[in-house]
Amino acid sequence: RCGGSVKRISIFGATGSIGQSTLDLIGRAPEQYKVVVLTGGANIAQLADDAKRFRPDVVVTAYPDKLDDLKAALEGTGIECAAGQEALVEAASRPADWIMSAIVGVAGLAPGLKALEQGTTLALANKESLVTAGPLLLETARRYGATILPVDSEHSAIFQALVGEEMDAVERIVITASGGAFRDWPVDQLANATLAQASTHPNWDMGQRITIDSASMFNKALEVIETKEFFGAPPEMIEVLVHPESLIHALVGFNDGALMAHVGPPDMRHAIGYALNWPDRGHLPVDRLDLAKIRQLTFRAPEDARYPALQLAQDVMKTGGLSGAVFNGAKERALDHFIAERIRFTDMAALVAGALEELMRQNVINLEVTLDNVRQLDHLAREAADRIALDLVT
Ligand code: NAD
Ligand code: MG
């Protein structure tokens, strides 16, 4: 960005939770930004409303069969409309100063890589990119001189705690977890947990998939792997701490015994806004915490038996290669099967473990981390998870 000029912004996954929070921030200072690209999925009404308000050069829906609806909704506006995965990647090549990667799942990887090839700044909410293809993403950023800024709240917290520090002085990285719906359940009852129970978060209202991933800690498992990939931290350095109040997002421990904790309101606009204003800080419209009113913060260790996903994350980090792609793909399918009420809550971890074992035996985990191989392993992992699920129910 040339000094003082307007910042060009593209948002991939604009209609989602992170995308909408990003637009909320942009909309508060419209004179500072020019929106270049907005993308969404099937929610054409939302995408078209946002396009009319923010006036991007191009709007892309992931789904080709929605293109006619999108064109109809934006008729007469002069805004270019496109659809499909290739159009998403093409849109990522349009020059922008700051690109938000907030598509959900492995679908975010290809546009993210293309964005990095511009040598620009990529604000990365799409944790699946790092989990499935961390080395590829970092190497692409390095080669093209691009910057990746973390937007996941824990990783933004770590990043902020590391400002002005050297990784050499870091001893441990602690990411916190709410503990999810079953943090107080007897462990031997987890196998009986219903879909409705797993879909209810003790602290807040989120989408169903992320709520279940919070109960199983599969989301935290992804974040542990994300920490290893983004910060280059060895697996044994990364810890998970259950912190039901969710106000400390992460802590970084240094070799002199200091622990730097990031405390903040549980509002994603903090992490998004930090990335938007980086390397400066700017005013953000988030709650200010009154710690005297909150009075206490509590912590406990995550039990292995309650959260087997955390051990699987350790296995993935030690195996490396494409095991993150297998982990993520199998986890998505395990979640599909649980949501369809075909398998029990506790079967999800078994499905993921089984898929990892099966693909290790086939010797495909240590192929090179390329976009094609990530897609291939994602596919194989889903197939393996489906087979194991079928075995469980028959
Ligand atoms: P969401 O489901 O609310 O939105 C996802 C967006 O991706 C939507 O715009 C949707 O249209 C689009 N999309 C879905 N499938 C697509 C596909 N196949 N191709 C192209 N676009 C597609 O998700 P979210 O909660 O905003 O999360 C986005 C990403 O940010 C995820 O990777 C998530 O793990 C991460 N994240 C979210 C939060 C949060 O609080 N919501 C916090 C940390 C990290
Ligand atoms: Mg997070």
From TrEMBL:
<feature type="binding site">
    <location>
        <position position="207"/>
    </location>
    <ligand>
        <name>NADPH</name>
    </ligand>
</feature>
<dbReference type="GO" id="GO:0016853">
    <property type="term" value="F:isomerase activity"/>
</dbReference>
<feature type="binding site">
    <location>
        <position position="201"/>
    </location>
    <ligand>
        <name>1-deoxy-D-xylulose 5-phosphate</name>
    </ligand>
</feature>
<feature type="domain" description="DXP reductoisomerase C-terminal">
    <location>
        <begin position="264"/>
        <end position="383"/>
    </location>
</feature>
<dbReference type="GO" id="GO:0030145">
    <property type="term" value="F:manganese ion binding"/>
</dbReference>
<feature type="binding site">
    <location>
        <position position="17"/>
    </location>
    <ligand>
        <name>NADPH</name>
    </ligand>
</feature>
<feature type="binding site">
    <location>
        <position position="18"/>
    </location>
    <ligand>
        <name>NADPH</name>
    </ligand>
</feature>
<dbReference type="Pfam" id="PF02670">
    <property type="entry name" value="DXP_reductoisom"/>
</dbReference>
<dbReference type="Pfam" id="PF08436">
    <property type="entry name" value="DXP_redisom_C"/>
</dbReference>
<protein>
    <recommendedName>
        <fullName>1-deoxy-D-xylulose 5-phosphate reductoisomerase</fullName>
        <ecNumber>1.1.1.267</ecNumber>
    </recommendedName>
</protein>
<feature type="binding site">
    <location>
        <position position="220"/>
    </location>
    <ligand>
        <name>1-deoxy-D-xylulose 5-phosphate</name>
    </ligand>
</feature>
<feature type="domain" description="1-deoxy-D-xylulose 5-phosphate reductoisomerase N-terminal">
    <location>
        <begin position="9"/>
        <end position="134"/>
    </location>
</feature>
<keyword id="KW-0521">NADP</keyword>
<feature type="binding site">
    <location>
        <position position="128"/>
    </location>
    <ligand>
        <name>NADPH</name>
    </ligand>
</feature>
<feature type="binding site">
    <location>
        <position position="152"/>
    </location>
    <ligand>
        <name>Mn(2+)</name>
    </ligand>
</feature>
<dbReference type="Pfam" id="PF13288">
    <property type="entry name" value="DXPR_C"/>
</dbReference>
<feature type="binding site">
    <location>
        <position position="154"/>
    </location>
    <ligand>
        <name>1-deoxy-D-xylulose 5-phosphate</name>
    </ligand>
</feature>
<feature type="domain" description="1-deoxy-D-xylulose 5-phosphate reductoisomerase C-terminal">
    <location>
        <begin position="148"/>
        <end position="231"/>
    </location>
</feature>
<dbReference type="InterPro" id="IPR013644">
    <property type="entry name" value="DXP_reductoisomerase_C"/>
</dbReference>
<feature type="binding site">
    <location>
        <position position="178"/>
    </location>
    <ligand>
        <name>1-deoxy-D-xylulose 5-phosphate</name>
    </ligand>
</feature>
<feature type="binding site">
    <location>
        <position position="154"/>
    </location>
    <ligand>
        <name>Mn(2+)</name>
    </ligand>
</feature>
<keyword id="KW-0413">Isomerase</keyword>
<feature type="binding site">
    <location>
        <position position="127"/>
    </location>
    <ligand>
        <name>1-deoxy-D-xylulose 5-phosphate</name>
    </ligand>
</feature>
<feature type="binding site">
    <location>
        <position position="126"/>
    </location>
    <ligand>
        <name>NADPH</name>
    </ligand>
</feature>
<feature type="binding site">
    <location>
        <position position="223"/>
    </location>
    <ligand>
        <name>1-deoxy-D-xylulose 5-phosphate</name>
    </ligand>
</feature>
<keyword id="KW-0560">Oxidoreductase</keyword>
<keyword id="KW-0464">Manganese</keyword>
<feature type="binding site">
    <location>
        <position position="214"/>
    </location>
    <ligand>
        <name>1-deoxy-D-xylulose 5-phosphate</name>
    </ligand>
</feature>
<keyword id="KW-0479">Metal-binding</keyword>
<keyword id="KW-0460">Magnesium</keyword>
<feature type="binding site">
    <location>
        <position position="41"/>
    </location>
    <ligand>
        <name>NADPH</name>
    </ligand>
</feature>
<dbReference type="GO" id="GO:0030604">
    <property type="term" value="F:1-deoxy-D-xylulose-5-phosphate reductoisomerase activity"/>
</dbReference>
<feature type="binding site">
    <location>
        <position position="16"/>
    </location>
    <ligand>
        <name>NADPH</name>
    </ligand>
</feature>
<dbReference type="InterPro" id="IPR026877">
    <property type="entry name" value="DXPR_C"/>
</dbReference>
<dbReference type="InterPro" id="IPR036169">
    <property type="entry name" value="DXPR_C_sf"/>
</dbReference>
<dbReference type="GO" id="GO:0051484">
    <property type="term" value="P:isopentenyl diphosphate biosynthetic process, methylerythritol 4-phosphate pathway involved in terpenoid biosynthetic process"/>
</dbReference>
<dbReference type="InterPro" id="IPR003821">
    <property type="entry name" value="DXP_reductoisomerase"/>
</dbReference>
<feature type="binding site">
    <location>
        <position position="153"/>
    </location>
    <ligand>
        <name>1-deoxy-D-xylulose 5-phosphate</name>
    </ligand>
</feature>
<feature type="binding site">
    <location>
        <position position="223"/>
    </location>
    <ligand>
        <name>Mn(2+)</name>
    </ligand>
</feature>
<comment type="pathway">
    <text>Isoprenoid biosynthesis; isopentenyl diphosphate biosynthesis via DXP pathway; isopentenyl diphosphate from 1-deoxy-D-xylulose 5-phosphate: step 1/6.</text>
</comment>
<feature type="binding site">
    <location>
        <position position="219"/>
    </location>
    <ligand>
        <name>1-deoxy-D-xylulose 5-phosphate</name>
    </ligand>
</feature>
<dbReference type="InterPro" id="IPR036291">
    <property type="entry name" value="NAD(P)-bd_dom_sf"/>
</dbReference>
